[in-house]
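Before surveying the methods themselves, it helps to consider a single example record, giving the amino acid sequence and backbone structure tokens:
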Amino acid sequence: MHRNAPLRSPVSAMVLAALMVLGASFAVLANEPMRLPVDPAQLSVLSAEGEVRARFDLEIARTGEQHMRGLMHRTDLPENRAMLFVFEVSGPRAFWMKDTPLPLDIVFAAADGTIVRVARDTVPFSTVPIRSGAPALYVLEVHAGTAETLGIEAGDRLVHPAIGGG
């Protein structure tokens, strides 16, 4: 029998109201930009010859949720700031720009910090996968054009306490 009667239990009504508020909160949080604390140690990018090409202040994404959100919904990133994604296992990586309004350069690095690929000038909001092309344990996101301006390329090395061998 189908009933269209109102909720009779005050407890049921409170549970339903709490679930609605919780659902609305998750929807708002899903679109909120994630801002991680700036790590006290800067990341350096060294050329194959050991020359310092760049130094960045870092936000470090370590958890699965942080990896999923990254720079999504961020409309600002200080000029000398980058986000470093640290994974538990080295492997092929694929990133996308879904819900990311900032154009970025995406730098993929092996377990020892050696850069294996630089994807330059990625397209904001694109869902096309951007692949590492080789196993990577670390991914660095910086403003689009940064890699070209500073000469960052495959074979260079990322150095930071969070990076093996750094």
